[in-house]
Amino acid sequence: MHGRLKLRPPDAARRRQREEKLRRYRVAMATLIDKRGRGELDAEVVELTGAVLAANPDVGTCWNLRRRALELLGGDWVPGELAFVGGCLGVNPKSYGAWHHRRWVLRHAPPDPAAQRAFCARLLDADPRNFHAWEHRRAEAGGEAEAELAFTAELLARDFSNFSAWHHRGRLLAAGPLPPARLRQELELVQNAVFTDPQDQSAWVYLRCLLARATPPPRLLSLHADLEDGTLAVAFSRPVVVAPGSLEAALEDQPLPGPWRPADGRPRPSCFWLCSLPPGLATPPAHLHVTWQQGPTHCEVMLRPGETEAWWQEPIAARELIWPEVGVSDPAVLSELAQACRELLELEPRSRGCLLTLALLLGALDPRAHRDELRQCLRALQEADPLRRGFVADVASRAEVALEVLREGAEPGELRLHDKVLDVSHNKVQTLRGLPPLPRLEELRLDGNPISHASDLAPLAACPRLARLRLAGTPLAAAPEAAAQLDKLLPHVAVALA
User: Fold this and answer.
1) Strands 261-262 and 270-276
2) pLDDT, tens digit, for every residue of 158-210?
3) Which pTM was predicted?
4) Torsion from C-alpha of 170, 174, 175, 178, nearest 10 degrees
5) Which residues contact 86 (CB under 8 A, 6 or more apart)?
6) CA angle, 450 as apex, 480 and 478 as ends, to 5°?
7) Quick check: 263 and 233 in contact, CB under 8 A?
8) Nearest one of 324, 183, 207, 301 to 252, comparing CA atoms
9) Which domains does the chain have, with CATH numbers?
10) In degrees rounded to 5, what are phi and psi of residue 56?
């Protein structure tokens, strides 16, 4: 026990004890391996493995031999085996072998849920973050949701920093947005936690996960018909898998045969999907419309005489640019939480979780109306959390991009797309990984960006018309092997390094 002086035998006696334990262990293991070789899986194997595992529950060979012997012996060994493995977990409560054996034993007899919950509760009293006990409780105890929520609330009342209890609570709540009464109850619990210890991150993480449960269904953001490439392209709000019949396109009320394919050519969820247009569209006018059955969303474009492309785009939802999962939540709830964060920051101005949560809430409410407070929060967060400056810089970058997109009456800024030329010079772009294919891009300007490796430009190999690339003032341009690496990566592109 903690705080109690242990009486240890003299060094020589302690050494003899260790040597005797090691001798017995070697004898037992030699006997077990010999009996396994002869196929003698009998009661002696159970006795020998019990002696070894009682002292060291992490010997996987003994657990395997013990299971094989028990299956051959037969009889009602389940109660005794549960008691034995319980003793082993007393020696090492996080023994993978012991927990695996316990689950194996329970498969041979219907478990008593109440007894399993009580067993896990005893272990969690000793160590509230014993992840084995939590997983066992979820898998075998089968408690009612409300009873489990009460159990987590009891643990959190003792220690709001119990990440495992917050995680278990989040898994108990059904997927999707919570009913207003339940949401109010959870927010009250979180506020009690963060006002008790504003620097602890567990409750802040739970709050952000709680708010992000109201994920909107994927919807069509834009539609582009291009006669030069003979393609119809759609962009979704998040990656989707287009199953047969879920996305339908029609030309003058005649269905297009398809099929739809992801823009990057990989069989995985994608934001961008393409469909081939029939050759007869070379002479507009033509009316095209697309329907997304899971939305449902309907959009249409008209190709007029003399035109080779046509666009449709959904109006920008300002609240969904920075934190889209929360942008669809009730504004009144978000405003109340933002005000609670402001009050807490008056008491704890360097609370990292509070600063990040407030910044995200402001972005989900109205980034334009709160731009100054949003920037101030992120600057304060960089000072309060220097170890995560890169993460905070990424959040700030996304916020600035969103504010630039929403800026009314803006003059041409750092992002310009004109005559198949994309200029993103001096924009702190470090990599192009994740860039979707741009089939009509002919010139890309990346001057002054912190790009250091040629591999960061690999997505440009999927741009078939790219002919010119500017990299002046980048770290890559000063690298000795840059020209050779880029020539190998982009053999048909004229690269300017100066």
Assistant:
1) antiparallel
2) 999 999 999 999 988 876 678 888 889 999 999 999 999 999 999 999 999 98
3) 0.70
4) -90
5) 102, 119
6) 15
7) yes
8) 301
9) 11-165 (1.25.40.120), 220-313 (2.60.40.1130), 322-406 (1.25.40), 416-496 (3.80.10.10)
10) -145, 95
